[in-house]
Amino acid sequence: MKKTIVILVSSALLIVVLFPFVWMLYTAFKPPGTGLIFSLKTGFTLENFRKVLFEYNFLKYFKNSFIVAFFAATFSTLFAAMAAYAFAKKRFFLKDALFWTFIASMMVPGLLYVIPQFLVVYRFGWMNTYQGMIVPHLANVFGLFVLTQFAREVPDALLEAARIDGASDLKIFTSIMLPLMLPIVATVYLLNFQFHWSNFLWQLIVAQTDKMYTVPVGLAMFKNSHQEAYTLEMAASSLSIVPIGILFIFAQRYFIEGITQGAVKG
Amino acid sequence: MNDNLREQISSYIYISPFLIIFLVFIGFPFLYAFYLSFHQVTSLRDVFGGLQFVGLKNYWLILKDPKFHWALIATLYYAVLIIPLNIAFSLLLASLMRIPFKLNSAFRTGFFLPFVLDAFVVGIVWTFLLSGRFGIITNILRPFISEGIYRQGFLGTPATVMPSVATAMVLKGAGFGMVLYLAAMQNIPKEIYEAASIDGASGFKRFFYVTLPLLKPVTTFLVITGFIGAISAFAEFYAMTGGGPTIRVFGVPQGMTKVTGLYLFDFIQTLKLGKAAALAFILLVITLSISLFYAKLQKGK
After folding, report:
1. Same domain (yes/no): B63, B118
2. Residue B82 Cα, gap to closest chain A Cα (Å)
3. What is the ipTM of this complex?
4. What is the 3-state secondary structure (H, E, C) of A191-239?
5. Domain containing A77 — which CATH number?
């Protein structure tokens, strides 16, 4: 009895939470111009997707989003893992001072960095380029923090044994540290990918021409120039939401673990 | 000695990619923003050279700007709406999801899913749902709302715009609070509940006198991050309201939802970079005060 009520209430709430996305998809598959007619009889079509992808360049925006998220996630995770190895297992000059400076920078809201980062990117001549969109965010402090915590758990004896066997430092990093850290590396990678896929403000500033827009930026521009093209708007929104949604469903364990760890420890 | 030197060098090789990016794109920008906040940009062609020292003028101009005061009020209003709503909804979800039933994990996935989605795009979808005359939610709720709301939509009406944005963002983000509450609930020993039951505490009493106090660390965390999130909220307002609709406060026109994030974006867009930097530091001081207050609360226990 109690369980039935719980399931009923949960189902009702789940409908409320997911309704916007169901409606988005429903509208995205409706024939153009029928976005505001609430009926299942309007039919089903892929026309909106064809239009946004090929006539309104969203194929290019999608590609840009993917390039930015993929390279940013790959390099920021790699750099963080390398640094985490040094911070967890090596002794060096200024180690603690550097680590705490990094951690302290997490307290500062991202908005503060936007203006001077924009100036640096402008000075480098990186406006409207992939490197301008990617490189400024490759020092991922949150990732460094989580990975360092994890790298500390790798037993020193293991590294020592490899060293005695004559393994080089690089070999120890690539064939012992990285494989052992794989689950947490995957977590950091996914969180970075998700962050860069939806990092709206920065891409809005750096991407200045149609050629470089990511999906959300392209959507913002599309919305400004096409009032009430709802079916197209929802098809474009789906292009941004569905890939991350699918990624999440398949890898949710890693997502949730990373997010809660960050919250508990940070 | 030789070994030590080698260790030093190899360590710095491992941290150098991270360190260099950090110095160029986080460390330097932080210091430069501070420097910039005391200057006025005189030549946009040379944003590093064309600067004129103006002392505290940028700070002063912002602190006495009625638009800034309004931005703080709007942000506070948003925070006061979204924080309790978010906590209540997260707690409700966690309480339901704590009970094991078939498909429980599928439900958890569904509740958490919107949290990982892009705030801007989710905002666009909600704008569509809430629009006047044609929005599906506007039509579903038509019997309960005034003709004015029906015509202008929830986001075009000053009284409903902020609650609408807050509701949309709570439905998007409560899965995060749910996961944190669930983790904390698992750590509550069963014996405490048994003892409370023996003492004759009903379900509701157990919830308010046993569960809630033990979940206080999570609640405090959600309150603090809620405030910080409200101060840097940008994408959801950019997507859903653009700062509007316009209202008059003491005869001065103000954007009902022109929160601090949008107020800062205005400076960036008009390239008033000195003022933008000064505002960013004012917001940093507010954020740090809240975080320090939080740290003190944690220590107090």
Report:
1. yes
2. 16
3. 0.88
4. HHHHHHHCCHHHHHHHCCCHHHCCHHHHHHHHHHHCCCCHHHHHHHHHH
5. 1.10.3720.10
